[in-house]
Each structure stands twice: as structure tokens, then as C-alpha cells.
Amino acid sequence: MLAIEDFLDGRDRDDMVLVYLSCHGLLDRQDQLYFAAADTRTDRLASTGVAARWVIELLDGCRAAQQVVILDCCNSGGFSRAGSKSAADADLLLPQRFIPTGRGRAVLTASRAHQRSWEGEPVAGVVGPSVFTAALVQGLRSGAADTARRGYISVDDAYEYAFARVRDRKAPQTPQKWMSSGEGELVLALNPAGAIGAEPATESAAQPPNPEHVPKPLGFRPVRLPNELTGHSGPVRGVAFSPDGRLLASASYDSTVRLWDMTSGLHVGTLNVLASSVAFSPDGQHLATAAIHDRLELWDVASGKSARPPLRTPHRDFRNIFPSALNRIQNAVAFSPDGRRVAFSRHNDVSLHDMASDEDIRIVSGRSRVAGVAFSPTGDILAIALDELVTLWTPDSRAQVSQMHTRYPGNFVSVAFSPGGETIAAGSDNHLAQLWNPADDTRLLILNGHTGAVSGIAFSPDGLLLATASSDATVRVWDAVTGNHRRTFKGHTGPVWGVAFSPDAELLASGGEDAAIRLWHHPDRPQDVLKLLGLLPAVAHGHAGRRGNAAVTL
């Protein structure tokens, strides 16, 4: 309450203020809305909750002529009747023709007065943004909410985009919008894509765009952890962060999987296994490795001991295989979001391992080696990179439900689901990465920029970025919504095989043929929030007069 009052006090009439609340929303017996704090009691909302009518009173007393309130909580639609304004204000929608200098108060809510606001699905222990906030931020971050291509995004634009995205997700909630004492248009953000009149992103956006229309790089740089982890004596084929981000696992052809402390960069453990892929369980207690001898190995992270019985028959020693032949061996592994199953490939088939029964059940076979597997965030779909196809299967029935073809000759060698499950990305040996909507198998984007096979692929935890690792010795970061190329990382001296984002999105790790693991860091996240809202570009270009911009997030 003090933070809100401090923020709204002392504002000038030329200011725009933005208040965003993401929390639990509770209704009392009179249907009055309260925002819950950590110590709020549901039977004493008046004395332990933050009343919506109190927030409205502060907004009424705030001198800023432009006010935007965004509420992402259950029952948030009840905000409209919490204050002194009449419910008729809810019908005062913005007019059809605007000038970009408006005034008034706009309120966007995630749901109606008696609806829940749904959270995003947790992925590997990481909770992503809610359905409503994810849609809203996606429209602002990518510029897709600027459907008229005017170069800026109004409150109306942001609402319409978020409304459509929430409906596309089939979430049982209806975002709402109200305007109180409104005139003109409230501009919420600049379009980061820049140019006014530019065409919306399509598959053609995969071609190198005009540099003037590309958002500035995010500012990744080598982190001082150090920026390179050394110790392996063979190619590093797979990397994976633990769910809490404290450990990084790396799989190498030197017959070891190493564990690294991400607070110091120190090597803290070694597992003796020749593997090409690694994955942590959602609770972080187990590590799965896809061994070259076509066997899934499970390890206890705390003790470093194998959690599966030893092999009953000796397996072939792959360390003396000719390097070019060894590089064609790429096993894949992935935990289901609930941790009950592990999908892993062995040569040209995929099996599901049941953690409770310790049984392996084969579900699919292909003509060549399966190189990628990925579970959807809900765990009900398994994506498999198999030859020139990405096939989707239901783990329970082990039935194929759909498949997606590459547009160009070549085989897929990596696959990943976005954290929200609305997009599948796959890399292939024809230098391309492609994105689809798994709901209807429509191709969304083709990413063209690498000159070698896209052997590793990973979404950022918020689903807005996509990282690709390639045999051309580079890692690229792309906007997962528009397909725009954001940055190329150079540092490896050979092919890059694996790539992974940390759960907090601060680190990007890559492993390569040069036996090195490189870490890239994003140091200016608060600044990016301002850029996202269009505030820094507005200040940089200069406004006439005393107009200011301010934002608070609680």
C-alpha cells in the first residue's frame, strides 16, 4: 500500500502512470474486490487485504492525466464497481478515431468479476507468466499488437491482442477493458519493430530483414563466472540447467558428464558415462543421460550415484570410433513435466521409461537415428524429431496424433516446445529452424541465418526468445514471435551442439566440439522492461514539454 501511494503521489498532469498488479484477487460478502498480501486472511479482508476501492481513491487523487491500470488476478473484473464511479463507466469504450494524445483512466483486467485468472503451466519447476500477462507482454515485446502498423501500441491495441490470444489458448476467462473520463488515445508503448507501415511478420520474415526494422540486440555478453567452463577433453554434446538454476550439467564424448556450480563456475561433480544428451528431473533430484550405447542412465544428483541397475552385458567402447562417425551419434532425452516418465532415443527408436516401475517401453521407430525429443508443458504430447518429420505422440496411448514436414530437403536434428505449449521449434541439417503451431500444424516461421546444421534449440523461460546452436560455430538468438534475428554469439572454435537457457533467463549456455562450455549473460533486465514499455526510446528521442512516463510493478 505504501509503494502504491508513494508512486502515485507527486505526479504532474503531463505524466502517464501505469500500475500493474499480479496477485490473488478475493471478493468479500458484498462482492467488493480485495488484493491479497502474504498475510491476508480470507475472513478478515477489510483489515488484512488491499481494497480495490482504496486503490481507486488514490488514482482519483493522482494528478496524472493519463492512467493505466492492469490487473492480473482472479475476480479482477470487480474493479469497475469498487470506486465511486458508476458502473456505466464500464461501457465508455474508446472512440473509433483517435489522436495520439489522450487522457483518462484505462483499466485492463484478466477476467470478469467472478472468473479466475489462470497461471501459466510450470515447466521443469519454473512458473512462467500467466495466460493474460504472457499475451499482453508478447504483443508489446514483438510489436504484434500494433496491427495497424502505426509504430505505436495503444491501450486498445494491447487489449484486443491479449483478448484474442487468451481466447486462442481456450482459457476459461474473459479479459475486460474500461475507460473512465476518456478522450483521445492512450499510447501504451512504442512498436519495437520500429517502422510505421511495415507489414506484419510472416514466413518471409525468416529472410534477413532490413537492419533499420530490427529491434536492438538484448545485450547478451560473456558473463564473468568465468565466461568459459573448461575441463572436458572431448566434444560437449549436451547442456542442461537444474530447475533452480544452481547447477549446469554437460555431456561430453570424453566419457563424462560434469556438474558445474552456477554461482562460482566451479566443477563440483563428475558422472562416468559417455552421453550426448542430459536432462534434469522437474524436482532436480535426478539427472537423465542418453548414453551412446543406447541406454538411458539415471543418476542421483546429490550423491552422484547411478539410480539404475548396472548393465548386465558389456557395451561397445565408443571412445575409439572415428570422430566423424561419432558425431553422427546423437541420442536425446527429456523428462515429462510431472517427472513420472523419461523419453529417450536409442538409435532409430524412442522409448518411454516409467520412473515408478523402471520399465522401458518402445513407442516409435524411424529409418534413421532419432535426434530430438520434447514433452509439451502439460505432458500430454511428445514431439519427436524423426528424419524429415516432427511427429507428435500421446505418451499414454502411444499413438501418433499429427506430423509436420520440413519444407526443404533435410532431416530434423533438434526439437523444443515453447513454455506455453503454443509453438514447436525444430532445427534441421539444412541450416534452418522452423516453428509451427501444434494445434493445427500450421507453419509460423522459418529462421534462416545459420550456415550449418541447427543441432541445438531452446526457448527462453518466457517463450519470447529462441536460441539455436549450429555446426557453423555460432549460437543465434531470435525473437520467437516475429522471427527477427536478435544476436549472434561467436566464441566457439568448432561446431556448437547444445544450448540451454537458465530458469531465470539470465544465462545462456552452449557446448561445442571444442570441448568448451560458454556462458552468455543478460545483465540489464530492468532496462529491458523499460524498453519493452517503450519508455526509454521516448526519453532518448526527447519529448516536447514536460510529459513524463512512469511505471510500477508489484
Textual characterization of the structure:
With 554 residues, the protein is mainly beta. The chain has two domains: 2-200 and 529-553, Rossmann fold (3-Layer(aba) Sandwich), CATH 3.40.50; 224-308 and 326-522, 7 Propeller (Methylamine Dehydrogenase, Chain H), CATH 2.130.10.10. The chain contains eight helices and 38 strands. Strands 8-6-5-1-38 form a five-stranded mixed beta sheet, sandwiched between helices. Strands 10, 11, 35, 36 and 37 form a five-stranded antiparallel beta sheet that branches. A hairpin with a 2-residue loop joins strand 20 (341-346) and strand 21. The protein is elongated, with a radius of gyration of 25 Å. It starts with a helix and ends with a strand.
Protein topology:
Blueprint: H1 2-8, E1 15-22, E2 25-27, E3 33-35, H2 45-48, E4 50-51, H3 52-61, E5 66-72, E6 103-109, H4 131-142, E7 152-154, H5 155-168, E8 176-183, E9 187-190, E10 221-222, E11 228-229, E12 236-241, E13 247-252, E14 257-261, E15 267-271, E16 275-280, E17 286-291, E18 296-300, H6 323-326, E19 333-335, E20 341-346, E21 349-354, E22 359-365, E23 372-375, E24 382-386, E25 389-394, E26 399-405, E27 412-417, E28 424-428, E29 432-437, E30 442-448, E31 454-459, E32 465-470, E33 474-479, E34 485-490, E35 496-501, E36 507-512, E37 517-521, H7 525-532, H8 535-541, E38 548-553
Parallel strand pairs: 1-5, 1-38, 5-6
Antiparallel strand pairs: 2-3, 3-4, 6-8, 7-9, 10-37, 11-37, 12-13, 13-14, 14-15, 16-17, 17-18, 19-20, 20-21, 21-22, 23-24, 24-25, 25-26, 27-28, 28-29, 29-30, 31-32, 32-33, 33-34, 35-36, 36-37
Helix pairs in contact: 4-5
